[in-house]
Design a protein that fits this description.
38% helix, globular, eight-stranded mixed sheet, alpha/beta
Length: 294
């Protein structure tokens, strides 16, 4: 991904990416040959080279096209009301988990408002097949809002993930411009209901910075998440995937990222990752395993 910069701004030094090594290239080939999508590639994550080198990957299920038009997202948007669902996708993903010897699998998805359950059954099937390989494999899911359907949320929770993530993405004021088909309170409600249905589940959310939000608004969103008993928070710098996407309003300095982490810890989050290159699934396995020993 080539980030689109604010006018007269230079690319920050922290965005320098590693040159893809042989392992990174081989993983790209494997995913392509297996017809498996990763959010790392589809969303143009700046950490792709480093994560692939370390054998870390976030799978993206339910196809490669999203039914929503969030202005910050680089994933393809559908231009048709007719989308397919490949029933073999969970099997292909489980086989890659086995091949790579993963002990921690991260599964996210596009949003599929066209499906009656929003794709919840597909999530559950992925988890079941991964668990069939080895019951010791931990699974983190990053789910859409399922349009608030509790049956879909329960379906995913009943399949037994260790971590359930749902991103609020930005502050409430910016939803109209950035996420016109989503609802801030609905997203908070998903996290709240997850804790109500399964109190032991570890919940997680993420906020992008540099979209024009204020410190007061970010802090308020953090407070909202803690009110819903969210356990883990990630905060990272937004980078526009193309000129047609929502523009970067500012690059947040390192000091501000540190301040947000301090605020988050003070609010009671069990873990807060805050930095320019932090993304939703950034160091997901490491953070989860650290929490096991807190």
């Amino acid at each position: 991904m080539n980030p689109v910069l604010p006018k007269n701004d230079r690319l920050p030094s922290w965005f320098r990416q590693e040159i893809p090594d042989d392992k990174t290239l081989s993983l790209r080939h494997l995913f392509s040959a297996s017809a498996v999508n990763t959010v790392c590639q589809e969303a143009g994550c700046p950490n792709l080279g480093r994560c692939f080198k370390e054998g870390k990957v976030a799978f993206m299920i339910l196809g490669g096209s999203c039914t929503r038009n969030c202005r910050f997202c680089g994933v393809d948007k559908t231009e048709t009301d007719v989308l397919t669902l490949n029933k073999d996708e969970p099997e292909r993903i489980s086989q890659i988990v086995k091949l790579l010897g993963l002990k921690y699998a991260v599964i996210t998805s596009v949003t599929r408002d066209d499906l009656p359950d929003g794709g919840a059954g597909h999530f559950a099937k992925c988890i079941a097949l991964i668990r069939a390989l080895n019951s010791g494999i931990k699974v983190e899911v990053l789910i859409p809002d399922f349009q608030g359907k509790l049956a879909s949320l329960k379906c995913v929770l009943d399949s037994g993930p260790q971590v359930l993530a749902h991103n609020i993405e930005t502050v409430s004021r910016l939803y109209k411009d950035l996420r016109p088909q989503a609802d801030y309170r609905l997203s908070l409600g998903i996290l709240d209901k997850a804790k109500e249905l399964q109190p032991s589940i570890t919940t997680k959310s993420s906020i992008m910075l540099g979209l024009g939000e204020t410190e007061v608004e970010v802090t308020s969103s953090m407070e909202d998440l803690r009110e819903k008993r969210c356990d883990i928070l990630t905060l990272g710098q937004y980078l526009a995937p193309s000129p047609s996407h929502y523009p970067v309003r500012e690059f947040i300095d390192i000091g501000q990222f540190r301040k947000y982490r301090e605020i988050g810890i003070a609010l009671g989050f069990k873990a807060v990752l805050s930095g320019p290159l932090v993304r939703s699934s950034y160091n997901a396995e490491d953070i989860y395993r650290e929490l096991l020993y807190v």
